[in-house]
Amino acid sequence: MSQDLLLKLELHSNPNLLCVVRGAMERLTEVFGFSAPDCRSVTRAVDEALTNIMRHSYGGRLDRPIGMLCRRVQKRPAAARGHGLEILLRDRGPAVDPAKLRGRLLDEIKPGGLGLHFICQSMDTVEFKRMRGMNQLRLVKYLQPPKQNCNS
Amino acid sequence: MSQDLLLKLELHSNPNLLCVVRGAMERLTEVFGFSAPDCRSVTRAVDEALTNIMRHSYGGRLDRPIGMLCRRVQKRPAAARGHGLEILLRDRGPAVDPAKLRGRLLDEIKPGGLGLHFICQSMDTVEFKRMRGMNQLRLVKYLQPPKQNCNS
Amino acid sequence: MQISARRVDKTTIFDVSGDIDLANSPEIRKALLREVKENRTPKVVMNLSKVRYIDSSGVASLVEGLKASRDAGSRFILYGLSPSAREVLQLSRLLKIFEVYDNEEQAMAA
Amino acid sequence: MQISARRVDKTTIFDVSGDIDLANSPEIRKALLREVKENRTPKVVMNLSKVRYIDSSGVASLVEGLKASRDAGSRFILYGLSPSAREVLQLSRLLKIFEVYDNEEQAMAA
Ligand SMILES: Nc1ncnc2c1ncn2[C@@H]1O[C@H](COP(=O)(O)OP(=O)(O)O)[C@@H](O)[C@H]1O
Ligand SMILES: Nc1ncnc2c1ncn2[C@@H]1O[C@H](COP(=O)(O)OP(=O)(O)O)[C@@H](O)[C@H]1O
User: Fold this and answer.
1) Closest residue CA from atom 12 of ligand 1
2) CB distance A24–B26 less than 8 Å?
3) ipTM entry
4) Residue owning the nearest CA to atom 13 of ligand 2
5) What are the DSSP calls for B67-104, one per residue?
6) What is the pTM of this model?
């Protein structure tokens, strides 16, 4: 394991396990040094991303594998306190159509379509890619957050 | 992954990560259906076992790998509500001398030597074995706890 | 998550505890819609003071409750939001859409 | 974990918040031993009302504080134990060894 790896986690696509991951993320973000609101928002982003994997990648099946990797990353160019928490989420569902990966407008009052908004509003970097038969969502939050960057 | 696997976790032997595992275990035990005191005591057992690995197996080094596996197991002979939570903890430290693996008497007031007591008092099964160059501690707690069994 | 209902005059109060997420938001939705649509309760109050976390599926269930109560001409009220629950409604731009109070007394008097 | 000290007359009160575990019990130990041995404070009170969890290394630090205060002829008092902290002292058969009170008022009056 590399020094910068903080935590590696594997779970099934079972919604009952979402609270377990939140329990871990609440503490990991705190240990990492985030403010209380940032701890909540990173935890929320991970939770919503897992929810999306369970619902959309796996269509509600409960027994499919999800991998999660948390690492410390350095901001480039390296700045003071310039490190961040990187979270990689991987699933083995069918390839996601990136065109579908977008949040809806919030001006209408209707249920659904909020998860991606929460993720983008919480994280500094949100990147999706398909690799080796897996979907990978990469989330990064820096300790001193720069301006929002969520067009990826 | 097998259906009965609940969670797989890898971390470094860094005490700062203990609270992260507790955060996950608090929720996992709750989801599993344990009473609040049982949730606390299973979480405590896992925490103390990890503490022992960090201190004794790895002598305080911060960057060594620890693996953790949580599964649902069935009690044999299968009884009503006879399932339990099994937790396997694995480290790559030197072989542990089983003769040293014992808690001290509690009648003296002195610091230290409490961890194994907490583990044994919390869990229904505590088993240690050396396998494939790894130490493995197996902890099981059943939903309706039978009599204590901690001579292993 | 646990949900139970109390009836006070013409108001039903749902006491919810634990986190609301994908694992249980369908249950919340069902309880709300039954109360609003079938039982036609004129005022439904959600006591969220023991709810630490609400995810987007939980917000969706609350929005469904709100819409159903608007359709039925009844009232739908939330109280006791945790910091996280408040944030999630703010992020959804729904904090001003719901009727939100600090405590039960205010929610009942409203 | 955070620890800070308050002085009230001849008593030092340590306010601790967060979990006490292997990551920070050495810090607790150091603060306690300094207060008891170096500063020779006649009464040291640990406010544990914001401590959710104490592990065996945390218990060991508290035992060291207790022993040092016995050696120094001073007093060492705990208050505000969470269910988990109470359990851990019970499991260690130390609950009756420590002076334990429910709240600060009782701890100061004792
Ligand atoms: N992991 C995923 N796999 C496939 N599609 C996804 C995934 N995550 C999000 N999407 C797509 O993005 C859309 C918006 O997601 P989101 O904002 O979370 O709202 P909702 O899940 O309520 O529809 C989803 O409806 C879906 O089409
Ligand atoms: N993972 C381990 N590897 C090697 N030795 C261990 C391990 N866990 C416990 N031990 C041995 O068991 C003894 C008792 O452990 P414990 O009751 O936790 O108290 P303490 O760790 O305070 O000594 C330790 O001192 C050590 O010799």
Assistant:
1) A101
2) no
3) 0.94
4) B101
5) EEEEEEEE-SS--TT-EEEEEEEEE-SSPP-GGG--PP
6) 0.94
